[in-house]
Amino acid sequence: MYEIRIHSRGGQGGVTAARLIAMAAFLDKKHATAAPFYGAERRGAPVVSFVRIDDHTIKIYSQIRSPDLIVVLDASIMDAVDVLQGMKPGGRVLINSPHPVDLPGVEALTIDLTGIALSVDLVVAGSPILNTPVLGAIAKMGIITHESALAAIRDMFADERNVKAAEAAYEELTV
Amino acid sequence: MAEIPEDEYLLKCTTACAGCSAALALRYVLKAAGPDTVLVVPACCTSVLQGIYPNTAFAVPVYNIAFAAAAACASGMSEAFASEGKKTNVIVFAGDGGTVDIGIQALSGALERGTNFLYICYDNEAYGNTGMQRSGATPIGARTTTTPGGKTDTKKDIDRIIAAHNIPYQATASAAHPKDLFEKVKTALATPGPSFIHILVPCPPGWRIPSDMPVTVGKMAVKTGMWVLWERKYGELTINGASKAAMRKRLPLKEYISLQGRFKGITEKQVNELEQQVEKNLARLAKEEAGEC
Amino acid sequence: MLTVATGNKAVAAAVKAAKPAVVAAYPITPQSEVVEQIAEYVTAGEMDTRYIPVESEHSAMTACIGASITGVRSFTATSSHGLLYMHEMLHWAAGARLPIVMANINRSLGPGWNVWAEHTDAFSQRDTGWLQFFVGDVQEAYDTTLMAFRIAENNGILLPVMVNLDGFLLSHIMQSLETVEPGDYIPPVRLPHRIDPENPAGYGAMTGPNDHFKFRWGIEKAMRNSPAVIRDAEEEFFRQFGRKYGPTEEYRCEDAEVLIVALGTLGKEAEVAVDLLRDAGIKAGSMRIRWFRPFPDLDIGGRDLVVLDRGYSFGYGGVLSSEIRSKYPGASIYSVVAGLGGQEVTYDDIAGFVRDRRMGEEFWFGVDA
């Protein structure tokens, strides 16, 4: 089983990111579940969502305690939240950041999702959309296929800028 | 006009959305009310923004109560304080859903009984706490999660329903006009019996505006006449401040509507209907203020 | 059609397939997505349904009653306090013998406000005459909602049906879903006592002490008919759509010495605990109960039962444990009160309950040592 924990702020689409990843994994003929952990709706507050991917039916509903991959959509969360908590030894981290982030002992990949979103004008109510470009990055990491990432995005969103952003992230991320 | 005190009752650990103008309004309400106050809060955004156990972000006692019941709870509390000769302010701070929809029975009853309390409805024109579903206070043409094609029914005019209860003090206010709000809360609390203040609180996630826009949008609501600032003391109506200018010459509603993502897709017909409602409302208020009705 | 969906969206998709004439809608976390999705279907013209955005849950149930008595299919959804706010009308709907279907997204009760999973809300409606099912995954949420309409509307039943989903744990989790075209699986609703101006009758008027009990017996008679009707609905569902359901879902129970008994998603997570225990040489099995009203016969056969109680009756005991004990007075039960207010319970915790079990006792997880 592959477990992903996504850290974001309310309104950035972290929950939708989890659902998109699950959908892509499903299209890859895997079993997948995606879940948020939140209470009332609050723009700007730290939010966590989870994805599990497996070849067999997933019967676990409790929270992910030792993720294989930690995704941080808003690096400022790292000031308030220990995003690395419970990470599996050898686990990876993917951070939305324009420059490299140094996390001792941890393989931290960075990608400027915000910059990518802005470059294709993927902005809603003043906020750049991060949950579709991040799918491109996750595909580049080999967790879902490139094809399924785009199919999942097209299934949920009509605006092709989402696909453009995902493609740009796929190209840009160096693994 | 009283000085606004420096004391803060809204502390730093609120869990409000970025740009929440309900929190902004509450900040001034509490400054006007002072420490000898109990806030009665039904299910609404304030249930959440006060923080999560074991913390509270408000420096006054807050009694949380079931959704339908705020005014009934305030009624009991007010009578109890009176029985002990206490002067503690009882203030309901409720959203529009808990006021014009599920809470209207309790509110009507509390007003009819002449309950000594202040009921504040902070109106973000949707069920905010549960994710922006339509309420009776949602205006025509607005998109919410349960009116994805835009609401086709008119905003319920709660102020006229309240007026029919003939209470001593009733007012409208705006989170974008804090001094006016501060004064009105002071007046309300100094008036024996029931008071009702209806505050417009632009909501970034609900109205689909950037988090730094609520004050701009709130001011535009008044400039277009979409929201009118007035108060009614013992039946005498006065139009206040910024609305006086809007009564003489107001900006077209487009200036207000175009700022908000929730009105995307609103039809010309709906905009015209809103313009007509605004004109009618302004005409009615003007007449009442002039003593002609 | 094969897709992915959350529990809430699966319920909405099933409601769309069932084609109700009226849906009454009031939001409450964590149910809101159900009524939001239905609103989208209606707005997009995918559902030909009259959508009533009522002003409270009491009105939601009452609007369904008003619709249902005219002979049309109706639906609503709620949770927690919303369910409690419509409580008197739940009694009314059953007493009026109306086949209303409602999704209840199980959530705890305040004060303090807590939006996470607990079964007390549904348990507090035990005595209303509603049928109740508890589901464990997204597919089952969809399938059971479809079955609910067929069961409720069966003229030998004509009682309302509640489909329970764990708040957040199932309502908001995304899993795979196969949607179906129900066709004649849900026949058109025919309410024998529907309002008919050509055959006027009075409904629910003053009924004296010599008659009222007969109507109460009518509800119970229908409830006693229901196991056969439910079984038939489940068998027909299997025949037409290939998925099998029963009063329980049993995993590795055949040679088990200890059974973990639960409702909802804990009953799924329990299967993971069973595998762990089996690897350690403990002959455990999982019995997830699906039917709650009517309460089903259970094949407990003298085994130790570790019952996960996600709802409690103060001064009395864990509700699921109490239900089992009342039906099987000799049963050996270890009542574990866990998961209240969304308290996290993992497969490791569940395995621990089994390993450390003290039969005949009650254990409050997080409180007792």
Word description of this protein:
The complex is a heterotrimer of chains A (175), B (293) and C (369). Chain A is an alpha/beta fold and 175 residues long. Chain A has one domain: Pyruvate-ferredoxin Oxidoreductase, domain 3. Chain A is built from five helices and eight strands. In chain A, strand 2 and strand 3 form a beta hairpin. In chain A, helix 1 packs across helix 4 and helix 3 runs parallel beside helix 5. Chain A is globular and about 40 Å long. With 293 residues, chain B is of the alpha/beta class. Chain B has a single domain, classed as Rossmann fold. Helix content of chain B is 39%, strand content 15%. Chain B has twelve helices and eight strands. Chain B has an eight-stranded mixed β-sheet, with helices on both faces. The mean pLDDT of chain B is 96. Chain C has two domains: 240 residues, Thiamin diphosphate (ThDP)-binding fold, Pyr/PP domains (Rossmann fold, 3-Layer(aba) Sandwich), CATH 3.40.50; 117 residues, Rossmann fold. Chain C has eleven helices and 17 strands. In chain C, the strands form four sheets. In chain C, strands 3-2-4-5-7-6-12 form a seven-stranded mixed β-sheet, sandwiched between helices. In chain C, strands 9-11-10-13-16-17 form a six-stranded mixed β-sheet, sandwiched between helices. Classes of the chains: A alpha/beta (175), B alpha/beta (293), C alpha/beta (369). The interface between A and C is medium-sized, with 21 and 24 residues.
Give a short summary of the structure.
Chain A has 175 residues and is α/β, with parallel strands linked by helices.
Features:
heterotrimer; A: 175 residues; six-stranded mixed β-sheet; 5 helices; B: 293 residues; alpha/beta; Rossmann fold; eight-stranded mixed β-sheet; 39% helix
**Percent strand of chain C:** 15-25%
Number of domains of chain C: 2
How would a crystallographer describe the biggest sheet of chain C?
7 strands, mixed
Lateral arrangement of strands in the main beta sheet of chain A: 2-3-1-4-5-6
**In total, how many beta strands of chain A?**
8
Q: Give me the side-by-side strand order of the main sheet of chain C.
A: 3-2-4-5-7-6-12
Mean pLDDT of chain A: 92
Q: How many domains is the backbone of chain A divided into?
A: 1
Could you give the order of the helices and strands of chain C? EHEHEHEHHEHEHEEHEEHEEEEEHEHE
Please bin the fraction of helical residues of chain A: 25-40%
Radius of gyration of chain C: 20 Å
Q: What is the CATH topology assignment of chain A?
A: Pyruvate-ferredoxin Oxidoreductase, domain 3
What is the structural class of chain C?
alpha/beta
User: Helical region count of chain A?
Assistant: 5
* Quaternary assembly: heterotrimer
Number of helices of chain C: 11
CATH topology description of the largest domain in chain C: Rossmann fold
Q: What structural class should be given to the helix and strand makeup of chain A? A: alpha/beta
Radius of gyration of chain A over all CA atoms, rounded: 15 Å
Q: What is the class of chain A in the CATH system?
A: Alpha Beta
Q: Which residues of chain A sit in consecutive blocks of at least 5 with pLDDT less than 50?
A: none
